[in-house]
Amino acid sequence: MAKAALHERQQELLQAERRLASELQECLSGFAGADVQTETLRQVTATLENLFLLVIVGEFNAGKSALINALLRREVMEEGVLPTTHQIAILRYDEQHTVHERENRILEVSYPADFLQNISIVDTPGVNAVLREHEQLTEDFIPRSDLIMFITSVDRPFTQSEKLFLERIRAWGKKVIIVLNKIDLLRHKADLAKLLHFIHDNCKHLLGFQPEVFPVSALKARQAQEAAGEQAIALWEESRFGKLEEYMFQTLDADERIRLKFLSPLGVMQRILGQTQSAVEKRSKLLAEDARTVHTIEEQLELYREDMESNFTHRLGEIENIVLDMHVRGNNFFDDTIRLGRIFDLIKSDRIRQEFEHEVIGDSATRIDAAVQELIDWMVEQEHKLWQNVMDYLERRRQMSVRSDEDMIGSVSRQFDYNRRALLQAVARQAHGVVQTYNRQAEAEELSQDLRYAVTQAAIAGAGGIGLGAAIVAFVGTAAADVSGILAGAVLLSLGLYIIPARRKKAKRDFDLKIEALRKRLHGVMQEQFQRELRGSMQRVRESIAPYTRFVRTEQKRVEMSQARLNEIGQGIADLRTDIEGPNAAKEMPEQVEQEEDMAYHHAVAEPRQHYQGL
After folding, report:
1. Share of the chain above pLDDT 90, in %
2. Which residue among 23, 45, 128, 144 is least packed, with the fewest CB closer than 10 Å?
3. Cα(353)–Cα(361) distance, integer angstroms
4. Transmembrane ranges (predicted)?
């Protein structure tokens, strides 16, 4: 990229990165840690206009301060065998060497080194596990870096704390170079080769790529800077510091610094994007479980409906059978009663009516009332069992949800967790309350009144205050009126030969019609009332879970929108990274990478004959 066009292009990249950061910030709303991540995004985008930031990390006593002093050619940073760097120190350019501490525990050091006009250096506390407060300071500064120089030493190469720290660095997508310090402690070149192999293998595993490795002796470099003549040249070559300076002052030129400067926020954005996508996925899985909960309850309701309808048909059939039994007995009664042999009994209407009530109606009213009461008790009991099943299921689901949430690392959102837990618990409590306060007797009495009212009003109007069974048989009993006094007013007895068969046939036909009409009307009205009660019991369950159901559906739509938006942002970050790195960077073949790693290793192990300059 030409320098004349660089500034214009830089502004385009700046705007593109800020836009992506802003869009990502919008997606963070409602997730745990959003404030911290938003502040991180703000900081890394703000540093785009600042000087290139080199952050030096490593364990204490690895030689971080000594290496900085070697680069500066003067002991500007304090050195020692104890952890001397106890706070973040920022090294900047100034014509005077000054040191002062900021309010936020950051030490600001100024020094008139020319390269500091283009690069700011951050010296950090050690990452050792024994100094947890120092480690936190270091990690807080990593996202702001444009380049990370990781210092390890030959006496303790890649300790466990260093490995853990590198794994965390990898997540930020930062450019990393490795400096292996204190090579002056090694007695044989073979030892250095082994160490470099060890470092290369670990870097590939921990970072996912092979960074450049610079074996140096900061001590020898400082000794060379303080010596003169052939001794200075010899010490400088032994220090192998020239390769590191070549990288710092030549390879890391203006174009490369700008490239890394604009790549740095993308790594941070990708990390936060990944965390947010993970949180969204976690939320999606929770909602999928919640949706299955709602679906399972709906399935229970459908099974409840099918079982109820199947059993109701059988129970209603028992009531209809009682009516049909009266039908059979009624026809037999007409055949036995309306005949010439009983012509004188037929004239006595009271006697005929009594026989009809005894032989046809009998105990039908009591049997119908008992069957209807069994039907009512069954319906009440089934609704109670429905609520009991819903309550048991929700309680199991709530306990599973609590255990699942406890197993999760972090939280997708305190408010989201609170809302879904509260709604699930509210539904469970409501179901539990219904079960505990369910009054079977009161429910049965209310259902009995509703059923009796519906049947007597729609099917047997004018039944008055008698029982349902009595109302039904009273309707059947009206057929007796056609039998009572059937021959009253006959003048000639001989006419009975013609009148009796006709009257019997008419009485049976009218009785059949009344029984069939009663059966159909009774079936229709009881079926309608049953369906009304069934819908009511199912609706009460649905209403109890309605807030929970609405929450799940609403949040699922939000999750889908968030996932789509995050995917768009991720693609935008990838496209911008390709634009900055160039189209060939992402297409590098594994064989080519391995060749470059071999070359990097060769250059690191080889004995470079460099001329010491500037002493």
Report:
1. 16
2. 23
3. 11
4. 458-477, 483-500
